[in-house]
Amino acid sequence: MTRVRTRRWVWLGVGAAVPALLLVALPAVYFVTVHGCGEAEHRLARTMAGEAVLAVAPARGAERVDTYEGCDDDDLFVWAGRTYRYGGPAEAALRRCREAAEADGWRQRTVAAGDPVSGCLGKELGGTTAYLTVGEMDGGLLDVSITADRQGSEWC
After folding, report:
1. What is the reported pLDDT for 91?
2. pTM higher than 0.85 for the full model?
């Protein structure tokens, strides 16, 4: 009789452990093997980081203070950019960057009504639309950044 009870408890334990294991193990396997940025996202980030517009200093004497690129593991959007320290008028620096971008094929983004989106340009890169923004930051800094994803999201 004790043997039967022991077997019954073992089978009940196994019956409870299997679903619990599946609830924990399957998401863990997915997270480790599928979740996050892959080679396609890293390749897109490298393509974006190599864009000529990122190397255009806003003016003579501007100092590059940061270069960055990366990918968000949760949403799979990719970014690349550079930050410059610039002491002159921001309007002239912004204009120079935008002119360089337009000369390199970047085009002003528009909303559904056809009105331009202020400060945002778009271009096909690596099989998706990338978005370039040029903006003034605190402390006399100018940020030139590109953002994209494979989902076709609008970034500006």
Report:
1. 83
2. no
